[in-house]
Amino acid sequence: MTLIAGTTASLLVRREVPPYGWFLAEDEAEGTPELLLPYGEAAGNRPSVGDSADVFIFHDDKGRLTATTRRPLLQLGQMGRLEMADFHPRFGCFLELGIGRQLLLPIKELPDNRDRWPQPGDELHVIMKHDKEGRMLARLAKIEDYERVVFRAPSSWHHEQRECWVTDIYKDGVFMLAHGGVLGYGALGYLPNASMIHPLRLGEKTVARVTQVRDDGRVTLSMRPAKEVGRLEDSDRILAFLQARPGGAMPYSDSTPADVIQKRFGLSKSAFKRALGKLMKDRLVVQDGNWTRLAASEGAAREAVASSDASTDTDAGAGGDPAGRD
């Protein structure tokens, strides 16, 4: 057996050396490599010489193999969800390992878009591996890693709200792990950009609605409410936007390109059209070419024109040009 960082081992307590701690080895044989279990790393009962101690092996700050009786949240080759504790602009994300030490996720593992990088408190699904020198390191879990542990989502999930974590980011959406509750680790899902309320970060936790349970057991997700509820909320948002605009008008309509709608309102083109349709049906807005206006603003404009015309007619009848008199 070889002493390997990131693994647990049952080792013999060969000797105690104050003020450092206990030196452990695989057996009593002469020349067997030893490693230190510092006093500060002995959680719970203190071992005695001759005892067997179950320890987790890691590298200390000076690069020496060291033991602890604390139990880590993740071991070599395992996948787990770890909370981000800190970030270093040169090295990457430092993840809580549960032993008073942190595990590095290198910056090269992060998305190209820095706006989508995780923040402290976000939770990342990673695999523990070794670097070239045998020290513990994290890498982001990939689809093939999830396939070994996730389950097929049941059809009963359709329309349910699920807690989800962003596991990977693509140009048109994000992959997520939908929490499985008592069922197990979770199910894989995909959330398209058009179904987001705001851009999501890697590792960010959110609640999303299952819009489809696919034949392969994966799910399609949305952060938006069901269409009827969403139509009411979206129409209220557009109405408030118009009310805050000068003249109660905006240069957006049914013919506005989908990418412009998504960028300006965070809505898909179809959701925007549904909301506009409701507002027009309720006679709250009108469309004029590529513009949409509040119906009240349209009426006020017509009243202003009519008032102006009436004023002109009155002035002409009351005074008029002297040259027009008999």
From TrEMBL:
Residues 317-326 have a biased composition (Gly residues). Residues 297-326 are annotated as: Disordered. Residues 236-294 form the Conserved virulence factor B-like winged helix domain. It comes from the Bacteria. Signal peptide: none annotated. Residues 84-138 form the Conserved virulence factor B second S1 domain. Residues 6-69 form the Conserved virulence factor B first S1 domain. Residues 297-316 have a biased composition (Low complexity). Pfam families: CvfB_1st, S1_2, WHD_CvfB. PANTHER family: CONSERVED VIRULENCE FACTOR B (PTHR37296). Belongs to the CvfB family. This is S1-like domain-containing RNA-binding protein. It comes from Cohnella ginsengisoli.
